[in-house]
Specification:
Length: 185
């Protein structure tokens, strides 16, 4: 990865022109940074904070050095889970959720900076699609088609935590799809 720009915006309120003539809602340009970890830096710059509730998101899609990147900022999903195996399985499907957003967000290529891209659809429609992708992942995807619960094997703590995650994903997915006027799952 080449030189990238790094932004910090604790308040999220100010709008400033970047050195590239692009107006974005992130102030305090820190400067170009080489070879940094996009997701880690995004968290340091509080890009993970959801403006709707002021809390850090589990995951998100960011533009970093002109490229879309899926980030997982909280391992273990909605609770989050503590069991190592459960975390790994759950995080894999959080990634499936974030990756599904790629086709619904604006292109990063023309804007060489570091931010969360705007959606090209209303939020509920985007979340409905993403939760459906996450649900499919939890139910098992090719090549092995193993469900998240099957992947726990005989680990009962893993199964319990994965089941809790499935329930919460279903609850959130149902709400988003209902608001979007679409079926779930
Ligand atoms: Zn989402």
């Amino acid at each position: 990865m080449g030189a990238s720009l790094r932004w910090s915006d604790p308040s999220g309120l100010l709008t400033e022109k970047t050195p590239f003539g692009v107006t974005c809602q992130i102030k305090d340009w820190i400067g170009p940074v080489n070879n940094f970890n996009c997701c880690e830096e995004a968290k340091k710059g509080q890009i993970d904070i959801n403006p709707l509730n002021g809390k850090g998101d589990i995951g998100g899609v960011i533009c970093c050095d002109g490229q879309l990147v899926s980030c997982i900022w909280i391992s273990g999903g909605t609770k989050p889970a503590k069991n190592g195996k459960a975390k790994e399985i759950i995080d894999g499907c959080v990634r499936a959720h974030e990756d599904r957003h790629w086709q619904d967000v604006e292109d990063c290529k023309t804007v060489r900076n570091y931010h969360r891209p705007n959606g090209t659809w209303p939020p509920n429609i985007m979340e409905c699609s993403a939760y459906k992708a996450q649900y499919k992942c939890l139910m098992g995807l090719p090549p092995d088609n193993k469900s998240a619960l099957e992947k726990c094997g005989t680990d009962v703590v893993c199964k319990k935590e994965v089941q809790d995650e499935i329930n919460e994903v279903n609850r959130r997915g149902t709400l988003a799809c209902k608001a979007a006027g679409e079926p779930y799952p």
